[in-house]
Amino acid sequence: MKKTKHPKYGRILLKLSGEALGGEAGASISPEAVRSMALQIREVRELGVQVVVVVGGGNIFRGLPGSERGIERATGDYMGMLATVINALALQDALEKLGVATRVQSAITMAQVAEPFIRRRAVRHLEKGRVVIFGGGTGNPYFSTDTAAALRATEIGAEVILKATKVDGIYDCDPKKNAAAKRFSQIKYLDALQKQLKVMDSTAFSLCMDNKMPIIVFDLFRPHNLKRVVMGEKVGTLVS
Ligand code: UDP
Q1: Of 19-23, 100-104, 235-239, minimum mean pLDDT range
Q2: Which end of the chain is flanked by fewer CB atoms within 10 Å, N or C?
Q3: Whose CA is nearest to atom 19 of ligand 1?
Q4: Which ligand 1 atom is nearest residue 78's CA?
Q5: What is the value of pTM for the model shown?
Q6: Residue 41 belongs to what H/E stretch?
Q7: Residue 192: exposure state from Cβ atoms within 10 A (0-12, 13-18, ≥19)
Q8: Section 109-135 average pLDDT
Q9: CA pair distance 10, 112, nearest whole angstrom
Q10: Phi, psi dihedrals of residue 169, rounded to the nearest 5°
């Protein structure tokens, strides 16, 4: 009798950068891009995997470049956090159109559009099979949505952070600039630090390292890649 394969993970946190939801060059919101991300999420939901998504906002606004152009840093960061809520709503819309039940929780209270972030409630949604989308980052300026991902993954007991990027993992140098760049299939936190490989910003990365939260960096622009990761195939780079 053929044995059916089970997913490797029961509860995952997917970190989607704003860029993944943007159109050409990652700017603004592309309904087609959002839909293709939603399709991949539905695929893993259908396997019974509990899914949390932390969305970025870089396709709309980032605080640091904003501050270089004259907007006060903290204000710019709040603008960036609001941008992540816009992305969260776009993803929610795409998922619900595909028949996937979702809830958006925001770290910045916005009662009309999203639930406030309440950890126990988020876990309950997951248990009921809903995809929980976290918007608003950590709710604090000077942080990133990668930090929000590291924090929330630990809080809600995710087994892994799946960081979606445009490249298929972590390389020893930029694969776009150097054809001889070598991809790691696996790397230890300390080695990634020593080699100064940019997996996440340092706050997010140390939070993962301190809490032994594994990170898989992979290419979500390839169809079915999320499912492959969840099924335990060797896709991308595992940092652990
Ligand atoms: N941001 C913040 N605190 C957080 C998360 C995000 O201030 O906890 C702001 C910050 O300005 C950031 C912007 O929101 O530049 C968008 O988030 P991020 O750059 O992490 O998005 P991504 O690169 O994933 O699209």
Answers
A1: 19-23
A2: N
A3: 58
A4: 7
A5: 0.96
A6: helix 31-45
A7: buried
A8: 98
A9: 31
A10: 140, -165
Residue 77 Cβ inside 6 Å of ligand 1? The answer reads yes
The radius of gyration of the chain from alpha carbons, rounded to an integer in Å, stands at: 17
What spacing in Å lies between the alpha carbon of 47 and ligand 1's midpoint?
30
208: Cβ contacts below 8 Å, ≥ 6 apart: 150, 153, 161, 189, 200, 214, 215, 239
Tokens of 89: 């709503």
Residue 203, token pair as written in the block = 């706050």
pLDDT tens readout for residues 37-87: 999 999 999 999 999 999 999 999 999 999 999 999 999 999 999 999 999
Q: Please give the number of the atom of ligand 1 that sits closest to the Cα of 58.
A: 25
Residue 204 predicted with pLDDT over 90: yes
Structure tokens at 135: 């918007």
- Overall residue count recorded for the chain in this entry: 240
| Ligand 1 contact via 56 beta carbon (within 6 Å) | yes
